[in-house]
């Protein structure tokens, strides 16, 4: 762990909050569903990728921009979701995001050009995803202290579960209803995020947001309120900036296998269902990695930041090995490396978000998470098209995966530069704002 989550100051919890239990577990279940319908659907776009190439007759790089715009929009609009969540509560923000995400995918099913997909599947659905993830994640974080990493691991294990189930399912749906019908169904599924958002109490928002709303409202300028909701002061703190740089580097290569592994597998001679099952297998081991990592991290034997470096390094190496394992045409070899990638990449996500409250404090986590997502959006926008460009230039995906893996290794090296990284114990926490009761 980079910084202890709590200082000697006592944070007063509202009566509605029950750390490490109670309604928090209901919200974990809601986040479980939301993640499957956001990032789980993102990972199934590799199946649509091949269909888009064949239908529109465009280059790999041009098609790759669809998924990259969606991912980048989700991250870029995260500060908006955080600010709205702090100002008005997470409930209405998440429900609105669920509606926009579903609407974007439904409109994408009627697209007649790549530009239509960029706007609908990329910008509009990405905006919806940005309004969902940050408020929902921050809400769950504030309900847990000692079992936070496990709670996040469980809620995010749905990403691997949905990747395992969705890839063969949508391959079948494409064969039955074509890609337009499959996108229409994915939009309808996304509307299930709306009732998940309704599970958040109407007054459930971050404790710091309550302080902002109750502390001299009339004397605050609009810019002061905006700065408070967005937590802009964290941008001047070295640990946060270092962490953002590291996560951004990680973000460049992290999603590349889920967008291009299906196409790579089919290029080297495997069948459509074999290619889809490779991603499904990675999704299955992803589930195990998230839960196992969350459980092990909360035991406290190792600092969270050290575990994050370990999992990031192993993920980078496994991504670089993916095309190498299939050069001989060995399907079992590709499957083994895919399982390794799935486990390690899943283990990262249980830790990467749990480190953030240790750096900025629980009271500022929603705004800080939104800023982190926005800044790393540029990296997400850059990663998949770069991979597609390298494939267009070389005619294969070996260089694409090698470069993607190298960005994760650079992220690991950046994490090593964090203050007190080599200490065996956690350093004192920086002063945190005193939080008040609601």
Automatic annotation (TrEMBL):
The keyword Membrane applies. Pfam families: MFS_1. Residues 24-429 form the Major facilitator superfamily (MFS) profile domain. Gene3D superfamilies: MFS general substrate transporter like domains. It is found in: Cell membrane; Golgi apparatus membrane. Coiled coil: none annotated. One of its GO terms (molecular function) is monocarboxylic acid transmembrane transporter activity. It is a multi-pass membrane protein. One of its GO terms (cellular component) is Golgi membrane. InterPro entries: MFS, MFS_dom, MFS_MCT_13, MFS_trans_sf, Proton-linked_MCT. Proton-linked monocarboxylate transporter. May catalyze the transport of monocarboxylates across the plasma membrane. Belongs to the major facilitator superfamily. Monocarboxylate porter (TC 2.A.1.13) family. This is Monocarboxylate transporter 13. It comes from Mugilogobius chulae (yellowstripe goby).
């Amino acid at each position: 762990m980079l910084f202890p989550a709590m200082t000697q100051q006592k944070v007063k919890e509202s009566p509605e909050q029950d750390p490490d239990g109670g309604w928090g577990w209901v919200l974990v279940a809601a986040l479980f569903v939301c993640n499957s319908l956001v990032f789980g659907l993102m990972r199934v776009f590799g199946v649509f990728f091949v269909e888009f190439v064949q239908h529109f007759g465009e280059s790999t790089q041009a098609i790759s921009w669809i998924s990259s715009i969606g991912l980048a929009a989700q991250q870029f609009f995260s500060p908006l979701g955080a600010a709205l969540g702090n100002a008005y509560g997470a409930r209405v923000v998440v429900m609105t995001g669920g509606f926009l995400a579903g609407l974007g995918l439904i409109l994408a099913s009627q697209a007649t050009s790549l530009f239509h997909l960029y706007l609908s599947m990329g910008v509009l659905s990405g905006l919806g995803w940005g309004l969902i993830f940050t408020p929902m994640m921050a809400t769950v974080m504030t309900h847990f202290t000692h079992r936070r990493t496990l709670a996040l691991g469980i809620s995010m294990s749905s990403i691997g579960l949905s990747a395992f189930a969705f890839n063969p399912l949508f391959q079948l749906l494409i064969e039955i209803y074509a890609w337009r019908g499959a996108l229409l169904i994915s939009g309808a599924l996304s509307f299930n995020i709306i009732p998940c958002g309704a599970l958040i109490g109407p007054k459930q928002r971050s404790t710091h947001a309550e302080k902002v709303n109750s502390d001299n409202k009339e004397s605050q300028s609009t810019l002061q309120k905006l700065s408070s909701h967005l937590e802009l002061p964290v941008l001047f703190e070295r640990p946060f900036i270092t962490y953002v740089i590291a996560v951004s580097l990680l973000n460049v290569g992290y999603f590349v296998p889920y967008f291009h592994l299906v196409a790579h597998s089919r290029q080297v001679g495997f069948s459509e269902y074999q290619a889809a099952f490779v991603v499904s297998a990675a999704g299955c081991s992803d589930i195990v990695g998230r839960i196992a990592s969350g459980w092990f991290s909360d035991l406290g034997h190792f600092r969270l930041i050290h575990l994050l470096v370990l999992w990031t390094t192993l993920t980078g190496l496994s991504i670089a090995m993916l095309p190498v394992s299939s050069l001989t045409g060995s399907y079992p070899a590709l499957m083994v490396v895919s399982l390794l990638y799935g486990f390690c990449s899943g283990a990262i996500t249980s830790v990467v978000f749990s480190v953030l409250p240790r750096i900025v404090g629980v009271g500022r986590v929603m705004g800080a998470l939104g800023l982190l997502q926005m800044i790393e959006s540029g990296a997400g926008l850059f990663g998949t098209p770069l991979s597609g460009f390298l494939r267009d230039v070389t005619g294969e995906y070996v260089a694409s995966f090698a470069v993607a893996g190298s960005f994760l290794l650079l992220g690991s090296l950046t994490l090593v530069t964090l203050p007190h990284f080599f200490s065996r114990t956690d350093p004192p926490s920086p002063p945190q704002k005193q939080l008040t009761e609601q």
